[in-house]
Amino acid sequence: MADKQMDFTLEDPSGLKLHFPVNPSEVNIRRDKSFETITIIRGGELDVPQGVKVKEIAFSSFFPADYDASYCKYKSLPNPQTAMNQLNTWMESQEPLRLIITETDVNVLVMLSAHNSSFRGGEPGDVYFDVTFRTWNDYKVRTLDERLGSSGGEARSDIKPVPPTYKVKSGDSLWAIAKINLGSGGRWREIYEANRAIIGDNPDLIQPDQELVIP
User: Where's the LysM domain (predicted)?
Assistant: First the structure.
């Protein structure tokens, strides 16, 4: 696989994108209690098996001040400090980001949970960074009054998760939505059955802006 085919990008809900200019040499992925390090050599493959729930993704790279064709993905580089400030803003935000690593199965909603930066002597203007992302889940947290209820009894501990949803975009299919959100396009029927009342009798006729529950 040629290096030019693999790209690392972050996108926020407003559509603002950050395309990392230098690919990391390795990516650390945590699934449940295990860690896996995938080394990317000259853009080598980063394989995330279908159906496996990724919990955490971490990698290190840098924002170069000047373009160098031997490692930069594109010429119109972001200002390193501006890029770092954007990462800081996203880390403080409560909105999920979409992390995409092209030529892989990594296309997930995440929260930026940790971010460190550093400078190195002899490389003026370059900013090095480490980032850690956690996969995003939307939980409904009840207030104390809601948990006590009208009877004023003891607080309950059942903070129930709200199922994640997906807003249909033009050109989407249930297969593609299942691929992105469940790890396998073959699981499209699970999404259809959970949203039959919205979609109707024909699973091929989904409409843009429909809000689908992801089971």
Answer: 164-214
Instruction: Give me Rg for the CA atoms of the chain.
Output: 20
- Domain membership of residue 172 as a residue range: 163-213
Which pLDDT tens digit goes with each residue over 87-96?
A: 999 988 878 9
Beta bridge partners of 97: 110
Measured CA to CA in angstroms, residue 137 lies from 94, 118, 124, 161, 169 at distances of 12, 30, 39, 8, 20
Please give the Cα distance from 173 to 30 (Å, whole number).
29
CB 159 within 8 A of CB 140: yes
| pTM tops 0.85 | no
Instruction: Please return the burial class of 19, using the count of CB atoms within 10 Å of its CB with bins 0-12, 13-18 and 19+.
Output: middle
